[in-house]
Design goal:
Largest sheet: 4 strands, mixed
Number of domains: 2
Function: Cell wall formation. Adds enolpyruvyl to UDP-N-acetylglucosamine.
EC number: 2.5.1.7
GO cellular component, one term: cytoplasm
Bound molecules: uridine-diphosphate-N-acetylglucosamine, phosphoenolpyruvate
Structural class: alpha/beta
Main location: cytoplasm
CATH class of the largest domain: Alpha Beta
Shape: elongated
Family: Belongs to the EPSP synthase family. MurA subfamily.
Strand order of the largest sheet: 24-25-1-26
CATH topology of the largest domain: UDP-n-acetylglucosamine1-carboxyvinyl-transferase, Chain
Distance between the termini: 23 Å
């Protein structure tokens, strides 16, 4: 098992490039199954554990998947007859495996997918996905830990109102509707940039989708979709994570390949704390200052403040002066990292769906365990600003969503390394 060992107290400076977005590439790779002709070539694919997992899911469904991690490219041929079953071993590893359900139902008229169940951040039901499939004429049934959707003939276009703008439900319904008979309207749809990327990809395959990025999406079903070449958008959460890394070390970092329009809420909240942010020719420049001000934040669906930046922002808020309140409204249980921050001497307490911080905390290095992938990044960020050495374990969470995180931080000047727990390298760091 690996560990990241970070010694705090170094200002980060320099440039860092963000990868293609994890939350865009997973739905796009799942949606590639819609193509019954030609091959899909997906570019700017980040080399993440989740990408390997979705590739395995697609292969288990009999698609031909060629992965070229060094070229950041995946080529998928899904023109053959596809299997309809996504097994538990994949869905358990990665919830986004549920996103094959829409394409399979559209292509085969039948899909059987293991129920994802809960995870470290909440119960995460899929009722809104299923409500959409049902409205399009599918019959839903459950048994032996699987959910099945079955349609007699083709799916039919329908008007679907989502009770909550769920990202996954919007994506699954959009892919199912892309090959349905007639027009589907999704109301109260999710508006995340990753939804727009998916709609663009489907349109590049020959689909007819308008309105992605607004709360009403109109999908006119087509008879067939064909392979295309698609570039994945940059990862706004990875970019935000490096913005916090710059701010928490009072550093001066330029982030290249970020799309500022995708990050308005994060930029605005960092500026409210006193962090200086400017758009330069090279990218987004972040200059941290000390002291920074405490603020209040509430996570919301896009364009609100993203829940996937909540734990990283909490690390920064711990170093701010005054009282700050961070409220999580998207997931019911995304505060597992709070106890780990307390182990680092963070002055933080949970009250219902909010966390209250009285700062600045005098953060101290400690042994901590990542509880989900953003928590993994957040604990490392807190380590950058702590006195002494922090050791972060359970790094399989980090590997789901960050490419070479410690190497990128080291290139910016962080004192950080990743060791296997069997390694004696750690002893060298323990002397500091
Ligand atoms: C692979 C991917 O893109 N993951 C992202 C996606 O997850 P995901 O697509 O799972 O997130 P959703 O937007 O669907 O979930 C948001 C909330 O809605 C609830 N819900 C969702 C569906 C449903 O049918 N019923 C229901 O009650 C969930 O339990 C959760 O509380 O969006 C989340 C919210 O921005 C991000 O944190 C995840 O990083
Ligand atoms: C919660 C996340 O991802 P997933 O939906 O894949 O668990 C995330 O990216 O922070």
């Amino acid at each position: 098992m690996d560990k990241i060992i970070v010694k705090g107290g170094h200002k980060l400076t320099g440039k860092v490039k963000v990868e293609g977005a994890k939350n865009a590439v997973l739905p796009v790779l799942a949606a590639a199954l819609l193509a019954s002709e030609g091959k899909n070539v997906i570019r700017d694919v980040p080399t993440l554990a989740d990408v390997s997992t979705i590739n395995e899911v697609l292969r288990s469904l009999h698609a031909d998947v060629q992965y070229y991690p060094k070229q950041n490219e995946v080529i998928i041929d899904s023109s053959m007859e596809l299997s309809s079953e996504a097994q538990f071993e994949y869905v358990r590893k990665m919830r986004a495996s549920i996103l094959v359900m829409g394409p399979l139902l559209a292509r085969n008229g039948f899909a059987r997918v293991a129920l994802p169940g809960g995870c470290a951040i909440g119960s995460r039901p899929i009722d809104q996905h299923l409500k959409g499939f049902e409205a399009m004429g599918a019959e839903i049934s459950f048994g032996h830990g699987y959910v099945e959707a079955n349609v007699n003939g083709r799916l039919r276009g329908a008007k679907i109102y989502l009770d909550f703008p769920s990202v996954g439900a919007t994506e699954n319904i959009m892919t199912a509707a892309a090959l349905a008979d007639g027009v589907t309207i999704i109301e109260n749809a999710a508006k995340e940039p990753e939804i727009v990327d998916l709609a663009n990809f489907i349109n590049e395959m020959g689909g007819h989708i308008v309105g992605a990025g607004t709360d009403t999406i109109r999908i006119e079903g087509v008879a067939t979709l064909s392979g295309t070449v698609h570039h994945i958008i940059p990862d706004r959460i990875e970019a935000g994570t490096f913005m916090v890394a710059a701010a928490i070390t009072q550093g001066d970092v330029t982030i290249t390949n970020a799309v500022p329009e995708h990050m308005a809420a994060v930029i605005s909240k960092l500026e409210e704390m006193g962090v200086m942010i400017s758009e330069t020719e090279e990218g987004l420049r972040i200059q941290g200052i000390k002291p920074i001000r405490s603020i209040d934040i509430k996570t919301m669906p896009h364009p609100g403040f993203p829940t996937d930046m909540q734990s990283q922002m909490m690390a920064l808020m711990l170093t701010a002066t005054g009282t700050g309140v961070l409220t999580e409204t998207v997931f019911e249980n995304r505060f597992m990292h709070v106890e780990e921050f307390r182990r680092m001497n963070g002055n933080v307490k949970i009250e219902g769906r909010s966390v209250i911080m009285n700062g600045p905390s005098n953060l101290q290095g400690a042994e901590v365990a990542a509880t989900d992938l953003r928590a993994a990044a957040a604990l490392i960020l807190a380590g950058l600003a702590s006195e002494g050495v922090t050791r972060v374990t359970e790094l399989y969470h980090l590997d789901r969503g960050y490419v070479d995180f410690h190497l990128k931080l080291a290139a910016l000047g962080a004192d950080i390394e990743r060791v296997s727990t069997e390694s004696s390298d750690e002893k060298v760091m323990q002397t500091v």
